[in-house]
Write the structure tokens for this entry.
Amino acid sequence: MEFRAELKYSQDHEWVKEEDGVVTIGISDFAQSQLGDLVYVNLPEVGDEVVVGESFGDVESVKAVSEVLSPVTGVVCEINEEILDAPESINEAAFDAWFIKVKDVTEYDELMNAEEYEAFCAK
Amino acid sequence: MGSYVPNTLEERQAMLEGMGFQSMDDLFKHIPEEVKIKNGLDIPEGMSELEVSRRMKKIAGKNRVFETIFRGAGAYRHYIPAIVKTVISKENLLTAYTPYQAEISQGILQSIFEYQTMISDLTGMDVSNACVYDGATAAAEAVVMCQERKRSKTFVSATVHPDVMAVIRTYCFGNGVEIVEIPEKNGVTDLEFLAANIDDTTAGVLIQHPNYYGNLEDAAAIGEITHGAGARYVMCVNPITLGVLKSPREYGADIAVGEGQPLGLSLGFGGPYLGFMTCTEKLVRKLPGRIVGQTRDHNGKVGYVLTLQAREQHIRREKASSNICSNQALCALAAGVYMASVGSEGLKEVATQCTSKAHYLAEGLKSIGFALEYENFFHEFVTISDKDSSKVLEALEAEGILGGLALDEKRILWCCTEVNTKDEMDAVVRILKEV
Amino acid sequence: MLIFEKSRPGRGICALPGNDVPAVLPSQKDLRETKLHLPELSEVELSRHYTELAKKSHGVNDGFYPLGSCTMKYNPRINEEMAGLPQFTEIHPLQPAHTVQGCLEVLKTAERYLCEITGMDAMTLQPAAGAHGEFTGLLLIKAYHESRGDKARTKIIVPDSAHGTNPASAAMAGYSVVSIPSREDGCVDLDKLREAVGPDTAGLMLTNPNTVGLFDKNILEITEIIHSCGGLCYYDGANLNAVMGVVRPGDMGFDVIHLNLHKTFSTPHGGGGPGSGPVGCKAELAQFLPSYRVAEGEELSLYKAENSIGEVKSFYGNFLVVVRALTYMMTLGKEGIPEASKNAVLNANYMMNQLKDLYTMAYDEVCMHEFVMTLDPLKNETGISAMDIAKGLLDFGIHPPTMYFPLIVHEALMVEPTETESKETMDYAISVFRDLYEKAHQDPEALHMAPVTTPVTRMDEVGAARNPVLRYKFD
């Protein structure tokens, strides 16, 4: 199980990386391991607004669907089309398979650092 | 009293006592007394199989079976090859549940995969689901498939079957989708109305081809108008006609649905029938209901499973694309056997005979003073005459013929299929000459 | 091998005589250009193909089928024979009323019996399946509120133990779903229910016995809570096989119900359908029922209810399924119907009692027609899951119980033997369950590999979903 030190994490198991005012969001390695083999991803469209704590998409395994909750409030400026075609890349490398990039961020969820998140997952 | 409980009274008592109960009532003790039935059900006593058989046959005997039928309007009598009934009576197929346990359901799963292939080949579309309830509900589900966040209304032609329109409206009473009816003009969809009113809030356009009156629509032109506005194009089609007519894909449809009853299902007083749904690959995630896919087992052997299940209600619950669970699987099986038994050439022949015979009857009726309301039809057509529709139909009924469907006092909607013979049609003309 | 791979150009069956009228075809612009690829097989090849497919399928007649919530009881042959009478199968749905008096009598009689069994005043037989019935029933509720000018009722309350169709149907009817948690015993938490209701409550969807197989004793209080806030109560009839002739939804305070004729009333499941999902309601809601209804008079006739929600399907529903269910009701009659339910409950309790020393019951009390086990302890101990046990049963000719439902029980297996199974059949299944339990401890690896005697082993479902192959591709 990987917990990347340079990232922040939400209680809903998303990872967050901020660079030049743009926030990149994905799901953690822990989350993908819990969800099992992913077979499909639903993402929002560029220009959509995302809100802290609200669903912006979902991930499907064979027998379950789980919503992905946004750790920030802002506007989607890019989506990762590659994971739409290859959801298995999330299982293979959760921290490279980002979901969306968000700009104009006005609000953040309470986020944890890697150490705190690892402890959170161990509970 | 008939019963299908194998255990004898003694065996039941022994089972009860083995658990420390005295009587059956002990098993229901926890149900509050005030809601229990006190004096039994007010229905007749049970019967032996022989008595039931007599009773049901007596009821059935009150129906009249017409040897000759010229009525369609959504339900069609075609010849059903004997093998169709043989296959759907096979107990392993008839009495099985939905094939969730793939290892012991390969036969059913493969039959659905074959059905999906045949239906999508017929409509020219990329994919098919395992079926829905009937043609009307398939149309209503197709309207739902068209919806997008920024597009909220759907145009439906007034020339679709009235039940299709009614079911779409009922579904939309539920989901709040706005339906705009495209008026009829000269027996077909009013293209000018559509072109003038369609806009970028339009999610879809739905027509029936051939339409309720049997007429051929300008289906390609409607497709162009629809796509010009960025909307999705839904065609409701009669599968038999596709042996001859252009496939929905050739007309540009994004979604093709229809009533599958003509493919080997009996009239059955309206059901069970079969709703088929096919679409482009791009829309597959929006397709409701079960879908079977090909895969391999752990030993690498090719097999079939229900797939893309996360679209469905048992997983997605209130966010599912539809609530459908049970479908009409056995009817889809029948349709598959029918298509396999007639084959490509056979289907062409059935379709050719249907339209040829309809034109023959239409000519015959014209020769005795009936006018044709529209000329460009397939195997159903509308006559108009001064003769009262009910008198016309009564005269035929007296001779054991179920005539067309009266649309009003003057107009009758007729249908011919391959089972109607030249002699039958000549008889209709002979009888009506005297009315 | 797929039927397309068996196809040979030029083969076929001779079903039709030649065209006896001059051939007429539509104009060129409407003629099909793309090639059709329907199979071409002789009748013998065709017949063998489907016999082979039948052999690779498993129906109620192939063995015990204790699939919880699905009521896989025996499908009597007489029902099939009656539904196959030409005086039913050869009737056009738009024939004049005086030529279909038998069909209308079937509809009317089935409606009357089903109303009596459920304590309802009126019923439509138009819905084609249970979920279709739910949708129809919810539209009745919607029409009722709207007819009173009450537009504020936008929510349907559904317990978290409900069938997936319940929330999906509510959403289709335009409602938002309020999911309330069940108590630990699977019953409705009255406090949570009271908190959830209000002037925006359109209704409650409930099944009783509930999805864990227990009868909710507080049912009158539950329906009263909904009624007192102005909502209506919807009964999901999936579990009616537990209580026919014993207690009626109408007497428990329900206003609208649907039934599953393909569960409770013995019509076959057909590999997934057709079913039939009649919807019954109390008198004040009858005006909203879908068309058509059967009117009595000198002769029977069809009419549309005055404030009907409209059609939910073409014509009158899955008529031939209704013929089967009516045959069944006539056979069993007033004593046979409660006898069926009582024996369904007896059989479920018998199996539960014979298994509970090994398997952990989710609720160890008198159950109704089905019971739920949790394989959580076994999984923790041995790594053997509900799925593994289910797959293990396949090697013994037993259809597995419903897996992983209800969602509120971990590693759930839901067992519904039905009344049509003999003690010997259940004893055999009990012995298999017990053997599998032993095997889970002694050789869990082997059980992970089960089944091994079936035409295929466990399938790669992930691959199927990631790279969907949904049809045969012709060259």
Observations:
- Chain C touches chain B through 197 residues (CB under 8 Å).
- Chain C is about 35% helix and 10% strand.
